[in-house]
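Risk register update: the risk that structure generation would not scale has been downgraded. Supporting records follow, first protein first.
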Amino acid sequence: MPTFCWYELRTTDPAAARAFYVDAVGLVVAAGDAPWRLRSDGPELGEFATLPAQAAARGAPAHWLGHVAVADVSAAVQRFVALGASPLGPVQTRPGGHLVAPLRDPLGSVLAVTSRPATPATLAWCDLHSRDSAQAAAIYASMFGWAPRQSHDLGPLGTYREFAWQPGGPGVGGMSDAALRPGIHTHWLFHFAVADLDAALGRVRSGGGRAAGEPMRTPGGGRVAACEDPQGAAFALHEAAPG
């Protein structure tokens, strides 16, 4: 089942970023350059990597790159390109033999497909900031089989469309028209769960990051806050609803 299975922070200073996320978000890193986990006994879910020179030359800022598990990387690239996506370089072979192919989706957001196996562990939420949430939902449904759930009319802010990895599954993220607003680019925004949002925001600020506006209430009663780390990569904090 295609799901986000690996979250790679591509940044200008991996060591500093690692220290920031360990303190501010609570990510667990065993030692040195080891992959990070959400908890010490959980699966490895991501890495801190240097922003590729080619990406920096194109003007790409530090960013989180979500990897989607697929059965056949080359075939997935071909299908995505047929839908209007653009490859961002050749298929890479990573340590452990995993294949990875970064792409820009038809509406401009960057992600990767990988031969890494899917994992049942996931982040708190995965948001796609797009210019056309209806088109985005159709693209990802066609590409990966991600299934629509309820939609929320946000008035002048457009429509927010929740999705699941498969029909009948729990909600794992949403797609919005946020990139139509000034200052917001198309991108996947990954949410990290925190027990106390206000305390976590304090750690973000003391660590050199910043909160992008005030926390917002989710339809389910939780709270989220969009943030940037000290190197400029966007992420979000997600406090679950009480009870």
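Supporting record for the second protein:
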Amino acid sequence: MGTLAGMMQWFPTGWAHYLVGGVFIGLGVAWLFLATGRVGGMSSVFSSTWSFVSQRSAFQQPRYLNSRAWRLVYALGLILGAAVWWLFFSPRQPMHTGLPVWQLLLGGLLVGYGARRGNGCTSGHGICGMGSFQLPSVGAVLVFMATAFATAQLVAAWLPAGAVR
């Protein structure tokens, strides 16, 4: 699977939009940090949004109350950006999954909870944390990557021969 053609099967809709999206995310996060000193992590949106509906002290901390308005606008911008891409640049066939909606919602809530417990998600540490020179994020990303490599090796060793393409 070392050939370029073999690797392209991993990207059935092409790779250019991933590159463009990554560049825009990087530029947006860098601009937010340079212009305001704020780190644009999305897992904080989870907690700051809950501060609107929950009176628990965990969600009523000043760091969530003071940032929830701009974080909500930030999250809406990401959603609108995805919608603009889909409306104007996508092949117009929405991608879908066979999973029921309740599993997607439950998975999203569990990921959001886990990301808050871990003080950020994997992409947040990689994009925002490392981009703002946070040493704990560098350590977190190294642990994430080592775990991913080890898991991939274990899964490949357990699968029957020829199952991994």
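The longest helix spans residues 135-158. On this basis the risk owner (M.S.) recommends closing the item.
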